[in-house]
């Protein structure tokens, strides 16, 4: 048997070994990229929907004209429009802008301006598994925040 034939016999399994080592790494990278794309897509949709919800529901909420009722209306509007019940949660908090003072003696410099802080919480898909010894465990949740300041009594005015 010639020297070239002996070398070919020893190197014939090299590609299989390299593929076996790289396959788990490639699978983990594919899951990370898929989750990243889902998160970015959810953030883009959330930004657009949050703006629309705050302008329509937060400016002049149905029923009582309080910040608390507007929070609930904006939150339910965003959650319904987003439609990702399994992977995303929405939370909305509102506060008056220009609140001066502390304790009992507070007053607002700009009483009609309200800032809505809309928070999207994303839970990645496949939150913990192991493939051929390579474990993948993404963070428990990713968050994205969008703040909008509106004048509650002047529709369409976004500061």
Report on the architecture of this protein.
With 159 residues, this protein is α+β, with helices and mostly antiparallel strands. Helices cover 44% and strands 27% of the residues. The protein contains 3 helices and 7 strands; from the N terminus they run H-H-H-E-E-E-E-E-E-E. The strands form 3 sheets. It has a 3-stranded antiparallel sheet, covered by helices on one side. Strand 2 and strand 3 (105-108) form a beta hairpin. Helix 2 packs antiparallel against helix 3. It is rod-shaped. The chain starts with a helix and ends in an 8-residue tail after the last strand.
Can you lay out the helices and strands and say which pair or pack?
Blueprint: H1 3-11, H2 14-58, H3 67-82, E1 88-96, E2 99-102, E3 105-108, E4 113-122, E5 129-131, E6 134-136, E7 142-151
Antiparallel strand pairs: 1-4, 2-3, 4-7, 5-6
Helix pairs in contact: 2-3
